[in-house]
Amino acid sequence: xxxxxxxxxxxxxxxxxxxxxxxxxxxxxxxxxxxxxxxxxxxxxxxxxxxxxxxxxxxxxxxxxxxxxxxxxxxxxxxxxxxxxxxxxxxxxxxxxxxxxxxxxxxxxxxxxxxxxxxxxxxxxxxxxxxxxxxxxxxxxxxxxxxxxxxxxxxxxxxxxxxxxxxxxxxxxxxxxxxxxxxxxxxxxxxxxxxxxxxxxxxxxxxxxxxxxxxxxxxxxx
Length: 222
What we know:
Distance between the termini: 51 Å
Shape: globular
Number of strands: 0
Low-confidence stretches: none
Mean pLDDT: 88
Number of domains: 1
Oligomer: single chain
Largest sheet: none
C-alpha cells in the first residue's frame, strides 16, 4: 500500500492535527480549571509524558515499516521527531517558567536535590542536534552515513527519558515500567537486526558472487 502524493499530504495533515490534541486538551483543561489542585504540576508532568510517548512512537516507525512493507511511513518520522522535541521543550519551559518563575538559584538547588531533572535536561540537549539536522538540507550536508550516526542518539535519549520518569515517580511505577518495557523491546529488536547483519557479513553474504570460469558444454538431445 503506497499512498499517492495527495493522500500522503492528507495523512501528514491529519497526523499534525492529532499530535496537537494533547497540547490542546491541556490548554482547555487549564482554561476550564479541570486539571486538579495543582494544574502547573499536571501540565508539566503531562507534557513530559507525552514527550516520551512521541519518542517511542517515533522509534516504532522503522520496525513497523520493516514488517509491513509500508515504506512511506518513513515520511512521517521527521514530523513525529519534531513533535517529540517540541513537547520536550514545552515540558522544560513549564518547569522553568510556570513552576520556578525563572528563579535560577531555586532551579540549581532543585537540580542538586532531584537529579532526575539533570537526566531529563541531558535527554533534551541530546535531542537538540537531532531537531536541528532533521531537514533534507542537513542530510545532504552531513552525508547519509554521518547523519544516521548522529541520529542514533535517539537510543540513549529513550533510555534517559525512562530513567527520568522512573526517578520522578515515587509510588506508582506502572507507567514507567510500561514505557521501559516498550523501550527495551524497540531497542532490543534493533540490536537483533544488527547482530543478524553482522553474522551475514561474517558469512560472506555481501561478497560479490564469483564469476563462472568453466567451459560451457552444449548438450543436444537426440
